[in-house]
UniProtKB/TrEMBL annotation:
The protein's name: RNA-binding protein
Xref: Pfam families: RRM_1
Organism per entry: Anaeroselena agilis
SMART domains reported for this sequence: RRM (SM00360)
InterPro entries: Nucleotide-bd_a/b_plait_sf (IPR012677), RBD_domain_sf (IPR035979), RRM2_NsCP33-like (IPR048289), RRM_dom (IPR000504), SLIRP/GR-RBP-like (IPR052462)
Boundaries of every RRM domain copy: 3-80
Record bears the keyword RNA-binding: yes
Segment forming the signal sequence: none
Keywords: RNA-binding
Amino acid sequence: MAKTLYVGNLPWGTTEADLAEAFRPHGSVISSRIITDKETGRSRGFGFVEVEDADVDNMIAAMNGADFGGRQVVVNEAKPRQGQY
């Protein structure tokens, strides 16, 4: 089973590969994505990492507050989207 982690306060130039690589030493990364502005294509400074369920606590403990590209990232378990049909 997989869970999704929210990762905030990312540097603007972060790529999906960068994000996955940062989490990989702490567990199994299934996928990663950076959220971008629809009009400009510029990063909005946050993204999501899909990880194995068993690795969630370890990854949050290791990465929440960690330095990533000179910024202190915020990592927590993503909440399901509401209002989606």
